[in-house]
Specification:
about 150 residues, 9 strands, five-stranded antiparallel sheet, alpha+beta
């Protein structure tokens, strides 16, 4: 999916809700010609790549920036898929690897290439699964932290 020209409006879990103005022609509202914009909304899941795209009706150009920046905007119908998809997504955040530190704490790697040590709290966000695993394994080999609360994860 081409995301060129899309501006991020908000996120809901792993779903980005984005919008792009596609037309800025004047429109007629209540018999008056006023500046309007047509907007396309796209919600895309960063985990599975699934997306939903919706065209909007005309917005008054002067109000579009205020509307899109409003915290309540994502709770409208335009954000419904973005709110519901994370619960249904088969690729939502899940653990793909665990490494045990010398002190007994667990270093976890997720499908989003995030690594976190449950003992010392250090973490890393990597570009790929292999680099996330490499950081987690290297950290586990050197870290002497014990699990928080004395329990292994």
């Amino acid at each position: 999916m081409n995301t060129a020209g899309l501006a991020l409006i908000t996120t809901a879990g792993a779903v980005d809700l984005m919008a792009a103005v596609t037309d800025g022609s004047p429109g007629t509202v209540l018999g008056r010609t006023i500046p309007t914009v047509d907007v396309v909304f796209t919600a895309r899941c960063r985990d599975c790549g699934q997306a939903e795209c919706r065209d909007s009706a005309n917005f008054w150009r002067d109000s579009w920036e205020l509307v899109s920046a409003s915290p309540a905007f994502a709770s409208t119908g335009w954000g419904k898929w973005a709110r519901e998809h994370p619960e249904e997504c088969l690729e939502r955040l899940r653990t793909i690897a665990r490494y045990l530190t010398a002190g007994g704490a667990v270093v976890t790697v997720t499908n989003r290439h995030e690594s976190r040590c449950a003992g010392c709290g250090q973490g890393d966000d990597a570009d790929s699964e292999s680099s996330a695993r490499a950081w987690a394994q290297g950290h586990a080999e050197l870290c002497r932290a014990m699990p928080v609360g004395g329990e292994a994860g």
